[in-house]
Design goal:
- The protein has a single domain, classed as ABC-type transport auxiliary lipoprotein component (Rossmann fold, 3-Layer(aba) Sandwich), CATH 3.40.50.
- The protein is an alpha/beta fold.
- It starts with a helix and ends with a helix.
- The chain has four helices and eight strands, in the order αββββαββββαα.
- The protein is 32% helix and 35% strand.
């Protein structure tokens, strides 16, 4: 009977450790301010890689020794890949798996740090993406970074964290969408 009781306790403990956190953020990156479009359709292949060491998108610090990581409901790599596909197609590019031209997006940082105190909360969001546009004859590489800060007198809710995270992703994607250097390179060099 003792062994059965111990086995039940261990099973309950392990199932509690293995279950994902109830807190997850709705991460929907998208550009909304696309001014640059190409004049002639060019094909490219698109790939997105997530090189972050930790996969959470928010870290809530509640004192010196307590930090709660919060993940996105969506896969971050997939969400950015979808956002880039939409962005490039709206600019007139055609995405094809067998193109000599490629655009690679590396997700270097996606994080909202929340420092929680008794009567205040500070949020610091930062997103860093590296974009490489490559042809058989050369490549264009540029890193894009966006950040925002917010604070309030009450606790930071998941909705507030989502808002700042999606806001910063929109800033970075708008930056990329309207980067004349990048668009000119792709329009001139892509076949």
């Amino acid at each position: 009977m003792k062994k059965l009781l111990i086995a039940c306790c261990v099973t309950l403990f392990l199932s509690g450790c293995a279950s994902p956190t109830d807190q997850q953020l709705n991460f929907t990156p998208q550009a909304d301010n696309i001014k640059s479009t190409i004049t002639q359709a060019k094909t490219l292949s698109l790939s997105t890689t997530d090189i972050r060491t930790a996969q959470y998108v928010a870290l809530v610090n509640k004192g010196e020794d307590k930090a709660l990581p919060i993940h996105a409901k969506q896969n971050t790599r997939t969400a950015f890949n979808s956002a880039f596909a939409t962005l490039l197609q709206s600019q007139g590019f055609v995405i094809s798996n067998n193109s000599d031209n490629s655009v690679e997006v590396e997700i270097e940082q996606v994080l909202v740090r929340v420092n929680s105190a008794t009567f205040s909360n500070d949020m610091d969001a930062k997103i860093t993406l590296k974009v490489t546009a490559e042809t058989p004859t050369g490549k264009f590489v540029k890193t894009y970074t966006g950040s925002a800060k917010a604070n309030n007198s009450m606790g930071a809710s998941n909705e507030q964290i989502e808002h700042i995270l999606n806001h910063v992703s929109k800033l970075v994607l708008n930056d990329i969408a309207n980067d004349v250097e990048l668009i000119n390179y792709m329009e001139d060099k892509f076949q």
